[in-house]
Queue: 4 jobs
Job 1
Amino acid sequence: MVRRAAPWLVQEYVYPHAHVELNFFRVYEWDGEPHGHDGQAFAWQMPGAFDVAPLLPANTRIMQALLLPRHTGSPAPPTSARRPFSSARPRAFAAGLRLVQLRERDWPVARLAAFAVRLRDLAHGMGAKVLLNGEAEAARRLGLDGVHLDVGAPCRGDVATG
């Protein structure tokens, strides 16, 4: 029995024979073992090490989402009063930060590119990934790991770059 949970993701998928909407929850507390109400089989799996088959196509993005870190960071933009790469960034990565979103959309292209490359190199050196809040092509060009799209932005299957 689920004791404590929160909504996580909703995945809509159109199969040739049906349109499905799957609602996923993060379960924080439960008692007992899961059992299907419609005869489904259950198996405990670790993210990235799924050994059950078949996995339905509607689950593809959810399986990818399970591999993402639970927490993300967003670096404060550098200012003239602060060095762009203060000791706070390496400390955050050393403490376990594994995903950063770069959100400086209003910067000139050259400034954003220089900052993104430095952040990417620091993050990758610490085993972390960097997302660009913007266009997938810009993320690819900068060697970043993916994008965070705006609400309503077109989403194709090739958005992730890493």
Job 2
Amino acid sequence: MDSERIVARIDLLIALGAKVKATEQAVSGTSWRNVDHGLNRGFRSAVLSFIELQYGKDHTYYEEFSKAVAGDRDTHIHAGLAILLAIREEVEGGWLQSVRGLVAAEIFADFMDMAAHLLSNGYKDAAAVMIGATLEEHLRRLATATSVPTEREVDGVPVPKKAESLNADLAKAEVFSKLDQKAVTAWLDLRNKAAHGKYSEYEKGQVELMCQGVTDFMARVPP
């Protein structure tokens, strides 16, 4: 796998981290801010899985990220994103030398394989968040490739459309079928439950079906 593919993975993780950062809220009676616990849990698990595959658990990046993102404060997510950016610069600069990482990069060809890896190790919630993030990115790429707008104006300011809006617009434009639209809606709903900590509302088997379904969908409907 070339460095461009790995950088693309990192960019998706950074986007996931940005979503966590966007949930920052002040904690009454304190000077700090907290982020959404469910989203942050999924982000932390996904990044640690990625770093382990590329560098191994004994690498400084794994240890530093594990320590840095140990809680839900805004400082934790800021530190995590800074580490991801450092990794991105290293990979983009051609400094990824770990044989283990290169072999792992070939085995785990994309985020869906990484999600399946998380599932096989019992991390159904992190896997659901990762699958959902990958699906959303696929919808945006489909929209861009088919000239379906990915933004809407709010008070004169362009705002990115939510995944479900893109899903409806793409089906309306006949980029994919109404049946696919219904399936995407169900997958996005499962992702939202995972992202907001509603872990008891779905089972591992449902996430496994989601993983298989999204993989098939992306193969059948490429950008």
Job 3
Amino acid sequence: MQEQAIENAATRSVKFMGINHLAMVTGDMDKTVRFYRDVLGMPLVATIGNKAFRHYFFNMGQGNTIAFFEWPGITTGPAKLSGVPARDGRHFDHISFCVENLDALHDLQARLQAHEVEVTRVVEHQFIQSIYFDDPNGISLEASYWVIDVAEAPVWGDPNPVAAVKEQMAELVAAHK
């Protein structure tokens, strides 16, 4: 009976609702709070901690949060540009926050500039438009809005996709015949 329940669960798809929290690292929680809460405008919604660490959560909307661990003496390493390979072999490139529309993107850009945060011009990426900036920890950040709803109208722009994508594209073509 239990084996059947496990088999049934293994074949059911899970509906993801977003990111509960993305856990990052900071060496200065006060500076991090002031940036995410005061500059970006993300409400601080939860804090936990003890003598060994702090763990703070900022609301990004719709149940999505970004959280930071602060461990005494931690260093976060050098800043890295978005979309540029890191020489230190890290697995993380950048975070992109979703905003509602182009006006919101321009408003965030102006807010960052008003707080003397270096920010790029709006960059067109075919299906999203974005701005790029760094947080006080050297984490490369992006803010984007969807120009096209890729959940409804996927964009297949890689001229040489991996095998798994070729299979998916073939299945989509076959389903529409």
Job 4
Amino acid sequence: MTYLMSMGIEASTAFAIMETVRKKNKFLKDTQIEVMRSHNVPQYYIDSCNKIEYLFPKGHAVAYCMMAVRVGYFKVYYPLEFYATFFTVRSEQYDIEALVGGEAAIIAKIDELRAKSRIKGEKLSNKEDDILKTLQVALEMVQRGYKFTNIDLNRSEAVRFVVDKENKALIPPFSTVDGLGGHNAESVIEERNKRAFSSIEDLLSRTHLTGTNVGDLKRLGVLKDLPESDQMSLFDF
């Protein structure tokens, strides 16, 4: 565009020619070629415009480079914040047991998924592929000296990973539990802010968690400090 403008072609026409070449939707129009020839644009230049498959704009390239510098900066100087943002925004599927299990558990799950696709020749499902991507970044994080704590009934958020600087860790959200959606997770936060849960029975009655959700949380040890019921027993006295 800037070259064509320097040759005296009107700005809007130069822009239209650039867009035709950049997107490669079609060849240059005859009228565009006539304009270029009338302004003494060399024939080799016109021929090149019809051969080019795609052009990457300078502004786009600069934006990518600036983003790479920003990502690199936060990854080096604010690692926990970087990973918390990554797992919250970019990850779609999780294996919470592998994450909480630490480096060995993460590696074991990665090897399991890779063996399925490479050794057994089975195609990974979209869900498994997303889990593999999450675990690869998680492995990088733990190998840098950080970790994932278990889900915390009192500190975990619905869908956002929480930074725990004191323990150099990330606290996973409730939504990392398979089948526990954002709506159900949000209900836990809303009720927790009103008052603490007194029992598993209380948790079930006040939130949108299903019996399966609660069973998974119990299996993970998230509810180990909650009694099953508020009902008192004679043996408590």
